[in-house]
Design brief:
binds iron/sulfur cluster, Aconitase, domain 4, single chain, binds alpha-methylisocitric acid, seven-stranded mixed β-barrel
Length: about 650
């Protein structure tokens, strides 16, 4: 039977279950990546599993999210991560070496391999024909321990590309165009596979921009074939031997096909505060801006910087605004320096920021109050920039650079500038900031370095048979993990200290949440559609669990967050009749009975709202392994019972 590329890779890694969309599936994981903000928990959990060394082909620990070192906590985390990498056979990419997804693409990614990363933008690797999936830290720890990764077998959606991009239109505009119609929840349970004659003209970094932001569709991942472009990219990294040709069979069938004629794509901007609110730039052209930021794992490749510099060369950024540029990796920064790109950026007035996530996760470069900021990033959720009332627009590097010159949102096609091909930047692979794993005997002698901010990971408790608890908070649709467990410079240093971090749960939406939850002892959260979209941070489950949240009732869930809730023993419940949402209010006391029986038998749960004496029906959608994890009180306890192979 003709196969999609997705199914070919899944079949080659099948460990459990089958590929029938919607059914549970376990796959072998070849590579893992962690970053510092999710990594400390992941290695604490790996330690709790009692395994000596990782059982993957390659595992890499990156430090890129919190590099500000405003006090001892940050460096303490880094030292812990470095010692854990040495202890468990993991590569360690040091602080300053670059953003995990960019560096992984450059140095470790291989076509046809599976990659599981404790970061939602792990699908960046799909640009290199890897099946690269984002997950919570605990799932990544389990994969490092050699366990299969469990997911719901996805539907494969084909994206058929024809034509080629017009000048000053770029890969970011392609994915923003797709987001505008597919929306931030359209990709849940799906893998987007790109094919067609249009892919030939797209380089690996351009493909990676598209697969990176496939995360914003809610998709399991996105995937490009491995072809001559892939070979050229690997050759530029002196890794040509890692290349294998890979593509879907000619007559492979897809659940649905989206047609995109690249020659018709125009510069796009996602309006505040959702990545899918994308419109042509010309519709918002002329709006005054105070800030421009170029970088993040979406748009920080050397060609992104070359296009930016070509536009800025010999000119100055508008006096009203501040332009920040964060190259994606040290390799990109060095190539920019050697080729003259960096000098042109500096001379234009750009502030060169560290090769790290930086402003993308609210670590500095926050906009002014009520400010309008143009960013080449992937998320513009309210408050994520560090300024609650700022307006963030997501755009391509070309649009960002053009607007940095004029001070207003500008369609780059309306300015004249050279393409940037004359820079000829050369990427010189240099692994000097990547510490390879130690020999096993030496690794066994390493002790983990734990600073005072590193608290043990709290464990969940088994789902009770009866739960009587209040609704602590009622939220709307598309609640993000940034809403649930915000990041930013004040909160990110607490990632390895759940009791301290729990104080900030929902703090931007409701500053009293943690207080109410603790006072209630046990509680329930009520959500709308696509609850928990966005990042992979398991802290958005772990910290509520610490506050006594036992169940989240929602209209629907985002994939990674639902898995994280299960991993920490919190029931993810959907309303059988979504209209019941309207009859529930914050403060209502709910009684949920027969929970364990329902987990065993897969039957619906009868819930009663004691406040208005209404009954309604809920489903958990769990069976087999996921039901058993909830019954055990989370994945760590489940593994502890020896049920995970
Ligand atoms: C993000 O972009 O939201 C993050 C910060 O990279 C997160 C991970 C985290 O919260 O540590 C993600 O995308 O998973
Ligand atoms: Fe870092 Fe931003 Fe990418 Fe997340 S989206 S990994 S914070 S650059």
């Amino acid at each position: 039977m003709a196969d999609t590329l997705t199914n070919k890779i899944l079949k080659a890694h099948l460990a459990d279950g089958d590929l029938q969309p919607g059914s549970p599936l376990g796959i072998r994981i070849d590579q893992t990546l962690t970053q510092d903000a999710t990594g400390t928990m992941a290695y604490l959990q790996f330690e709790a599993m009692g395994i000596n060394t990782v059982r993957t082909e390659i595992s890499v620990s990156y430090v890129d999210h919190n590099t500000q070192q405003t006090d001892y906590r940050n460096m303490d985390d880094h030292r812990f991560l470095q010692s854990a990498a040495a202890r468990y056979g993991v590569y360690f990419s040091r602080h300053g070496n670059g953003i995990c997804h960019q560096v992984h693409l450059e140095r470790f990614g291989k076509p046809g391999k599976t990659l599981l990363g404790s970061d939602s933008h792990t699908p960046t690797g799909g640009g290199l024909a890897m099946l690269a999936i984002g997950a919570g830290g605990l799932d990544v720890a389990a994969a490092m321990a050699g366990a299969p990764f469990y997911l719901t077998a996805p539907q494969v959606v084909g994206v058929y590309l024809t034509g080629s991009l017009q000048p000053r239109v770029s890969a970011k505009d392609i994915i923003l165009t797709i987001l505008a119609t597919e929306t931030v929840s359209g990709g849940v349970g799906k893998i987007y596979e790109y094919f067609g004659p249009g892919i030939k003209s797209l380089t690996v970094p351009e493909r990676a921009t598209i697969t990176n932001m496939g995360a914003e569709l809610g998709a399991t991942t996105s995937l490009f074939p491995s072809d001559e472009q892939t070979k050229a990219f690997l050759a530029s990294q002196q890794r040509e031997t890692d290349w294998v040709p890979l593509q879907a069979d000619e007559d492979a069938s897809y659940a649905r096909i989206i047609d995109v004629d690249l020659s018709k794509v125009v510069p796009m901007a996602a309006l505040p505060h959702m990545p899918d609110k994308a419109v042509p730039v010309e519709e918002v052209a002329g709006l005054e801006i105070q800030q421009v930021a170029i970088g993040s794992c979406t748009n920080s490749s050397i060609s992104d910087l070359a296009h930016t510099a070509a536009l800025l060369r010999g000119k100055k950024v508008h006096p009203r605004l501040s332009l920040g540029v964060a190259p994606g990796s040290r390799q990109v920064l060095a190539a920019a320096a050697r080729s003259g790109i960096l000098a042109d950026l500096i001379e234009s007035g750009a502030r060169i920021l560290e090769s790290a996530c930086g402003p993308c996760i609210g670590m500095g470069f926050a906009p002014s109050s009520g400010g309008r900021s143009l960013r080449t990033f992937n998320r513009n959720f309210k408050g994520r920039s560090g300024t609650a009332d700022a307006e963030i627009y997501l755009v391509s590097p070309e649009t960002a650079a053009a607007s940095a010159l004029t001070g207003v949102i500008t369609d780059p096609r309306t300015l004249s500038f050279e393409a940037g091909e004359d820079y000829h930047p050369v990427m010189l692979p240099d692994d000097g900031m990547i510490i390879p794993p130690l020999e096993p005997a030496e690794a066994a002698r390493v002790t983990l370095i734990r600073g005072p901010n590193i608290a043990p990971c709290p464990a969940g408790s088994p789902v009770p048979d009866r739960l009587e608890a209040p609704v602590i908070l009622k939220t709307g649709d598309n609640i993000t993990t940034d809403d649930i467990m915000p990041a930013g410079s004040a909160i990110l240093p607490l990632r390895s200290n759940i009791p301290a971090m729990a104080e900030y749960v929902f703090t931007h939406l409701d500053s009293n949440f943690s207080h109410r939850a603790k006072a209630a002892g046990e509680g329930i959260i009520l959500g709308g559609e696509n609850y928990g979209q966005g990042s992979s941070r398991e802290h958005a489950a772990l910290a509520p669990m610490y506050l006594g949240i036992r169940a989240v009732i929602a209209k629907s869930f985002a994939r990674i967050h639902r898995a994280n809730l299960i991993n920490f023993g919190i029931l993810p419940l959907t309303m059988d009749n979504p209209a019941d949402y309207d009859a529930l209010e914050q403060g209502d006391i709910l009684v949920l009975e027969g929970l364990r029986h329902s987990l065993e038998k897969g039957t619906p749960i009868q819930a009663r709202n004691l406040t208005n004496n209404r009954f309604f029906s809920l489903s958990h959608g769990c069976a087999g392994r996921t039901a058993a994890i909830l019954q055990a009180g989370g994945l760590l306890r489940f593994v502890g019972r020896g049920k995970e192979k």
